[in-house]
Design a protein that fits this description.
- The chain has 430 residues and is an all-alpha fold.
- Helix content is 77%, strand content 1%.
- The protein folds into two domains: 186 residues, Growth Hormone, Chain: A (Up-down Bundle); 215 residues, MFS general substrate transporter like domains (Growth Hormone, Chain: A).
- It contains 16 helices and two strands.
- It has a two-stranded antiparallel sheet.
- Strand 1 and strand 2 form a beta hairpin.
């Protein structure tokens, strides 16, 4: 399917957007390659939970830094060119990870490099879509693009669930790490006749005043930091936790890892639903209230989920589905609210700063989880037995608590500002 350059902007979901979303789905396959195989890798590579978490953190940290760099460069170089080159290099390095990651050190280096190479596949994609769609339909288009990410994660876990019992982590890595190169090919077909010019250098703005001195914006950024801490920590370790629950129920190691990946895939499909529904709901209701409800519910799930090991599997999965919905549901709400609080000329730098600190926190969460998991589980006959997961997931609940506090303070600041704009007669001051 090809896309023609047209004078008029796009207004609906069409073949062009389907091609972009398909490339995003393929690209998303590599994001969950490591997490899906983690229960097997820990045993075969003889890693502690802290080492296992460090590999996930390296990927997230590399992605966070490169996201900021690519976002800045995209003002001066065509986002289309950066998007395609990032997809291609991610495809090459992903295959390198699949073929050469065979232990802690090699996986740490190669998985981090994969994260760095992927940094140009998100913001640039949003910029391409914004260039092609009229303003009143961009929310729909970008919503499909972001939802495609969750779809890619889910398919990655489903593929891993089939591949691990059949061919171990090597087959799982190979199949999922093919995703970015297929995504590049799909994007190249879609974009080869689409012109996307560079935006040009922005007018200089006072970052300290417009962003750091903007209290509502900083509360939203703090909420995003806490949101990423909880969400990325949960995504990194949930497949391993579910595999442990299945192993306690009598499943073999490889089968438990495969079934755990399958179940986690359903969590990402629920996250896709959360992205659509909560963003739309916040357009009709107070955004701060939606943020507070989701953050508080996510915090409760973090403090409960890890302690559910040993409970009936249906109950564990039920809690996990609610957890997945609430942990991801505030993402589009936080983004929409920030666009309303920051001056348009400073929005790009605000989003870049938010990505750096948000994904930076998300990069630390998996290793912090792993450290606590090691501390709270005993070594028996020379091997650590991971039976107690409650304290480790509770560490992620601290992020949910921080997000709830930020949402509460954000709502309070907006109400105070609204009252301050009204005189005693209830009319706006001039």
């Amino acid at each position: 399917m090809t896309a023609d350059v047209s004078v008029e902007k796009r207004t609906r979901f069409d073949g062009w957007l389907a091609g972009i979303c398909a490339s995003r789905v393929f690209n998303g396959l590599v994001f969950m390659s490591y997490a899906a195989a983690l229960p097997v890798l820990q045993r075969e590579w003889e890693m502690s939970a802290a080492q296992a978490g460090a590999i996930a953190s390296g990927f997230q940290m590399g992605y966070a830094v490169s996201l900021v760099v690519f976002s800045s460069v995209a003002d001066r170089i065509s986002p289309k060119r950066l998007y395609l080159w990032s997809l291609f290099t991610a495809g090459v390095f992903s295959l390198g990870f699949a073929f050469f990651a065979r232990g802690f050190a090699s996986a740490l280096v190669l998985h981090t490099v994969v994260g760095i190479s992927l940094g140009g596949t998100y913001t640039t994609g949003v910029m391409i879509i914004a260039d092609q769609y009229v303003a009143r339909h961009r929310g729909m288009a970008v919503g499909f693009f972001i939802a495609s990410t969750s779809c890619g994660y889910a398919f990655s876990l489903a593929i891993s669930g089939v591949a691990i019992p059949v061919g171990g982590y090597t087959l799982s890595f190979l199949l999922t790490c093919l995703g970015p190169i297929l995504g590049w090919f799909r994007a190249w077909i879609t974009l080869r006749r689409t012109a996307v010019p560079a935006a040009g250098r922005r007018k200089e703005q006072r970052f300290t005043r417009e962003v750091l001195g903007n209290r509502p914006a900083m509360l939203l950024i703090w909420g995003y930091i806490c949101h990423n801490w909880e969400l990325l920590g949960m995504w990194s370790w949930t497949p391993a936790f579910l595999a442990a629950c299945l192993a306690q129920a009598g499943s073999m190691q490889a089968s438990a890892a495969g079934y755990g990946a399958f179940i986690t895939a359903s969590f990402h499909f629920v996250g896709l639903l959360a992205s659509f529904s909560m963003g739309a709901l916040s357009d009709r209701m107070d955004r701060a209230r939606i943020l507070l409800i989701l953050a508080a519910a996510g915090m409760a799930c973090s403090f409960l989920f890890g302690w559910s090991a040993g409970w009936p599997l249906a109950l564990v999965v039920g809690i996990g589905l609610v957890y997945a919905f609430t942990a991801l549901g505030d993402s589009p709400v936080l983004s929409a609210a920030l666009t309303e609080e920051v001056d348009a000329a400073c929005l790009g730098v605000a989003l870049g700063f938010r990505s750096l600190v948000g994904f930076g926190a998300g990069a630390v969460a998996p290793v912090a989880f792993g450290v606590v998991l090691d501390w709270t589980n005993p070594v028996i006959d020379g091997q650590r037995v991971y039976a107690d997961w409650g304290w480790a997931f509770s560490v992620l609940g601290l992020g949910g608590g921080g997000a709830a506090w930020a949402a509460f303070r954000f709502g309070r600041s907006r109400r105070q500002e609204t009252r301050g704009q009204l005189n005693p007669a209830g009319e706006k001051e001039t």
